């Protein structure tokens, strides 16, 4: 809520109708650090919490399991690599499972502070570290 409140104070009615991701990307490109921090943290936290579901099924979709196995050898290997990457993320930030459209692979990336996946990286899962 604090990120949304502060973001609304900074924006007013500028960029009305834009997605939160588009606002963050534009703010970063424009070098507007305060706007980027609020918009990116709003995006990151919204993405993070949207992935949490009560009573989620005990198994993942077969298509996802196939993709994880292709790029990480196994789901367990992904879990280990994800946790290792998260533990190695220095300071405040995020660890992401992303799909990189440039080489059509799933990857694990760290971002610092309010950082978010960029360019050809599409977020799949994240953890606030």
Shape: elongated
What is the rounded Rg?
16 Å
Please give the CATH class of the largest domain: Alpha Beta
CATH architecture of the largest domain: 3-Layer(bab) Sandwich
CATH superfamily of the largest domain: Iron/manganese superoxide dismutase, C-terminal domain
Helix content: 40-55%
Count of the separate structural domains: 2
Mean pLDDT equals 93
- Give the number of helices: 5
Instruction: Let me know the number of strands.
Output: 3
Strand and helix order: HHHHHEEE
Low-confidence blocks of residues:
none
Largest pleated sheet: 3 strands, antiparallel
Q: What percentage of the residues does DSSP assign to strands (E)?
A: 15-25%
Pfam families: Sod_Fe_C, Sod_Fe_N
GO molecular function: metal ion binding; superoxide dismutase activity
EC number: 1.15.1.1
Organism: Crypthecodinium cohnii (Dinoflagellate)
